[in-house]
Amino acid sequence: MEIVHVYSKLRSEFGRQCLFSDRPAELLLDLPPDPSLTLSFIQKSPRDQAVQACWETSEHQVNTERFETTSCGINHMEGGWPKDINPAEMEQTIRVRKKVEKDESFINSVLQLGSVMEHCIRQNNAVDIYQECFEDEEVVEEIQEPPSAKTVNIFRDPNEIKRTVTSLSWQPDGGRKLAVAYSCLEFQKSSKDISLDSYIWDIGGSERPQIDLTPHQDQYVHCTMFSVSENPNRPEMMLKPTSPLVCLDYNPKDSHTLVGGSYNGQIAFWDTRKGNQPVEFSSLEHSHRDPVYKIIWLQSKTGTDAFSASTDGQVLWWDVRKLAEPTECLVLDPSREGNLDQALGATSLEFEPTMPTKFMVGTEQGLVISCNRKAKTPAEKIVCTYDSHHGPIYALQRNPFFPKNFLTVGDWTARIWSEDIKESSIMCTKYQMSYLTDACWSPVRPSVFFTVKMDGVLDVWDILFKQSDPTLSLKVCDNSLYSLSVQDNGRLVACGSQLGEATLLEICSGLSNLQKNEKSLLAAMFERESKREKILEARQREVRLKERSRSEQSREEEAGREEGEEDPKQLIARAESDFYSLVEAEVKRREKKDEVMKVRRKKKSFSFGSFNSVLTAFWSFIFQEKDICEEKDVKDEEQRGTSE
Amino acid sequence: MAEVEETLKRIQGQKGVQGIIVANSEGIPIKSTLDNSSTVQYAGLIHQLVMKARSTIRDIDPQNDLTFMRVRSKKNEIMIAPDKDFFLIVI
């Protein structure tokens, strides 16, 4: 019911002065209470009502502006001399000194202080009050604390336009420095203004003063070496190549030299003692034709050999003293013909110093190629291939403790392989939510490896502890993480992100200290998994042989059938029909069996029950609901049967 | 005078003592067994340290005063005995 009161005013009266007048109240509407409405309400009593009397407060956060500090030394000059004495002149100082010495208070105080001091010195000599007691006692077994890792430092790309951290390399022998390569890997997304540098950062703890090299804001890309130092804002050193560096590696024998592979395919060699510019770089004609995705130093007598891999399908060996031409070249052609057109692009490379003649290459197509360097002909160089992932293999590394097993990462899983088994991996993680971009083993614990993903998460996997999930999963940053590197001591992990941030994390001691029996347990695990795979492989082969012999027989029988392959559609249709007929036969058999069971009321064995559950899974997927209900009834009866 | 010398010699003769410096309240080294540059450095820096320490102790409790200070480092230990006008530094 609408209550409307209409006010009307003449147009000419608009703007006229308001003249108010009194009027008695007019009853417009009278709504009597309607008791029937109370039936739609329930009375609630007693009621609780909290009342608080306090003053209002509000929260406010303030962050001060970043304050940049520099530390420098101060030189002390002598001071405190009386004004008329010139401290440089020996005579005057000696005169002052002599005068003071004659002063009586001097003599008294020295005597007094001397006795006090003597007392303390004698104390020192009698007992070393600062000695370390209980040093030799064994370290008590630490309580198993939950695994953790904390961020120690974050190094940000000082340039305005952020580039992706594509590769990280720790300095060998203690690793105080971290070399980080920056480049923009997205196709044609790099603008003219982005800096080409990569940096070396110092991880703190260095005693010598930092030499600040001002960044040269040109069109050149600098390589900065990030040192994790007291100053995480400024890199310790910059490396300036002619084209952005995609990968970088410190020489394990000489901690001052580095070799880097750049976006345009050139290889460059730096010596940090000699400055920012590369000492040498390879000529354009003989380098790779695509970005160099991985470059690793080799073990050699001269310590100057390195090899690099790129998506143009070549693996080139270089001697860094003479970078004009590669010393050797291998074309990754799986048909072993050395045909560059058929070659597969390489995205990762693997080399283990304990096996200097063998190395492995991970390709864009998801194939891992194991090669032998010492083979006489190029055809023999490629030993075998492993078909591993659905996408490019971004990381490939042998387990430092068990070189026969290696880890590959690509698409959404990380897989562990055994060299002998070529069909499939011995262990595989679940399919993760996002793409895995890099992985590496921990150098101290054989069962721990780290992976980074595109959603910015760093996972630490301990396969002795838990195989289905990462032991520790940390969200490092909001954008994707592209690269990862563990320091030789196994405690510090550096990961690089898409926006140029290199985050340094320290892993808890539980994950970075070798546990008892770890090696033997892990060896047993690998053995077990490899055996399983071998058995499966053997079985597969048997099945295939049978199929082949069967198909050969059927081909002989039917003359009319076309030779050669059926096209995929026919195959699929045939497979489907086979499957359905098998399943239906199974259903009928089971129904018959159930009837028999009902009659006999035999107890079922557990294995039958599990077989049932597997089949029910299949059936529920295929059949309509009606059948599922049928199935459920059958299942209930079975359960009743088992319980009885 | 001779007693002063004797005292200092005795201290110097103790095992583990590397050097002695006697400095006045302004930080000027009066007597020293170390070379000039080290002496000056030690006297100046330690003077400041002693002043700071003394004022700290006094701030916390005005009745208290600094009697002795040991600064133990990785390589050696510096012992400082302060007085009203002078202080004795032993390394």
From TrEMBL, chain A:
GO molecular function: dynein heavy chain binding; dynein light chain binding
TM regions (residue ranges): none
Gene Ontology, cellular component aspect: microtubule; outer dynein arm
Keywords annotated in UniProt: Cell projection, Cilium, Cytoplasm, Cytoskeleton, Dynein, Microtubule, Motor protein, Repeat, WD repeat
Region annotated Disordered, chain positions: 546-570
Subcellular location per the Swiss-Prot or TrEMBL entry: Cytoplasm, Cytoskeleton, Cilium axoneme
First-listed, main subcellular location of the protein, grouped into a coarse class: cytoplasm
Biased amino acid composition, Basic and acidic residues: 546-562
One GO process term, biological-process aspect: cilium movement
Family to which this protein belongs: Belongs to the dynein intermediate chain family.
The protein, known as: Dynein axonemal intermediate chain 2
Organism: Haplochromis burtoni
From TrEMBL, chain B:
GO CC annotations on file: cytoplasm; cytoplasmic dynein complex; microtubule
Subcellular location field: Cytoplasm, Cytoskeleton
BP-aspect Gene Ontology terms: microtubule-based movement
Gene3D superfamilies recorded: Dynein light chain 2a, cytoplasmic (3.30.450.30)
One term of GO molecular function: dynein intermediate chain binding
Domain named Roadblock/LAMTOR2: residues: 4-91
UniProt KW keywords: Cytoplasm, Cytoskeleton, Dynein, Microtubule, Motor protein, Transport
Regions crossing the membrane: none
Listed SUPFAM superfamilies: Roadblock/LC7 domain (SSF103196)
Function: Acts as one of several non-catalytic accessory components of the cytoplasmic dynein 1 complex that are thought to be involved in linking dynein to cargos and to adapter proteins that regulate dynein function. Cytoplasmic dynein 1 acts as a motor for the intracellular retrograde motility of vesicles and organelles along microtubules.
UniProt similarity note: Belongs to the GAMAD family.
Annotated protein name in UniProt: Dynein light chain roadblock
Organism per entry: Haplochromis burtoni
